[in-house]
Amino acid sequence: MPTRALYPLAEGSGELDPLHPEDRRDRVQSVRRACAVLRALATGPVPCSTQVVAERVNLDRTVVRRLLRTLEGDGLVSCRKQRWQLGAGAVALGNAYLDTHPLYQTALHHAMVLHDDIGVGRPWVVNAAVPIGSDAVVIARFLTSSAPVDAVVKAGTRLPLGGSALGRSMLAFLSDGACRRILGPEGAVRFAERAELIRRRGGLDVAVDEIRPGISAIAVAVRSEGQEPIASLAISGPSKLLPLHTDSDLCGRLRRAAARIASEAPQVAAPWRLDEPVRELDLNDPAV
Of the candidates 220, 210, 238, 251, which has an alpha carbon nearest to the alpha carbon of residue 151? Predict the structure, then answer.
C-alpha cells in the first residue's frame, strides 16, 4: 500500500494538496522528491539531521542526503553542524510568489487600511490568507506594539483549512465533495452544521483559544465574482478583549474590507480543482 509520503502530514489531514491530484506521466520523480524535502524543512522542526528529513519524507537516507546537497548548491537549503534548514534562496522564491499573486497587493492594501482603522490603541492583529492545498497560508499581517506576542502569526504560516477561522471561512463555500477530500468523510459531516452557520453569517467564522490559548480570531471569506472563496481576512487579539459578536462594529468593518478586496480583484480565479479523486503518492514509486 502506498505511503502518504508528502510532508507535512498535518493532524487530521492526508495529502498536502488534496484538491490538485497529479497525472504521474507528467511528473519527474527527482523533482517531486526535492519538493517534499523542501516542504519537510518548511513546516517541521528545524534545524534537523538528514535522518530526520528522510523519515519525514519516507525516503532512503542516502537519497535525501544527495537531494539536500543539490538544494544547498542552489541556495535553497543550508547546513550547519550537520543540521539542515531552508536557505536564503527559498525566501527569494516565496517573495517572488507573493509579488506575482493577483490578490497580494489588493489584500495588502485593504488589510493595512483595516488595521489603521481599528488598531489605534488596540491590541488587534489583521491577517490576510490565501488557500494553498489544504491550508490557509498567511500572506500579510499588520499589528501594533500593543499586540500580544501570542497573537502574532508570521507571514507564510500554514493553518489547516479545517482548523482555523481563516481556513473555515473559505472551506464553508466549497462543495461537499471538496470538504470530504480535505477533512475526510467523518470530518466533513462534523463540519456541515458549522459550514451552514458560516454561510448564514456571510462567510464569517469565529475561533476562541484555537491556535493559541487566550487568543481569539474573527475571519471572513473573500469570494470571487462566482462566489468561490479566493482568500480570507481575519482580526485576532486577546480573547477577553476581542468582541466576538458577529453583528459587532468590528465584524462589520471586517466584512466591508473583504468586500472591497473582492471588488478590486474580480479576475482572480478560485484555486480549487475538483474534477479528479485524491491519489496517494509513494515517493519511492518510479512512476511518481
Answer: 238
Give the integer Cα–Cα distance in Å for 155 and 141.
7
Say if residue 120 is in the same domain as residue 247. Answer: yes
Q: Which amino acid is at 239?
A: S
The CATH number linked to 282 is: 1.10.10.10
* Dihedral, 190, 171, 17, 166 alpha carbons, nearest 10: -110
238 in the same domain as 110: yes
Chunked into runs of 10 residues, the chain (288 residues) has average pLDDT values of 32 40 69 92 89 94 96 95 93 82 83 86 88 86 75 79 94 91 92 95 92 90 86 92 88 93 71 39 49
- The whole domain housing 206 covers 103-264
Task: Categorise residue 142: left if φ over 0, alpha if ψ from -120 to 50, beta otherwise.
Answer: beta
d(CA 174, CA 179): 6
Is 235 in contact with 126 (CB distance < 8 Å)? yes
Side-chain half-sphere CA neighbours of 144 within 13 A: 14
Residues 136 and 258 reside in one and the same domain:
yes
Q: What share of the chain is helix, strand, coil (3-state, %, to 5)?
A: 40, 20, 40
What pLDDT, on a 0 to 100 scale, did the predictor assign at position 251? 92
pLDDT of residue 7: 33
Q: How many CB atoms lie within 10 A of CB 286?
A: 7
123 plus 199 within the same structural domain? yes
- Cβ–Cβ < 8 Å for 268, 130: no
Q: What is the pTM of this model?
A: 0.73
* Helix (H) or strand (E) segment spanning residue 204: strand 204-208
Q: Which three cell numbers stand for residue 92?
A: 527569494
Q: Find the radius of gyration of the CA atoms of the chain.
A: 20
Q: Are 144 and 181 in contact (CB under 8 A)?
A: no
Domain tally for the chain?
2
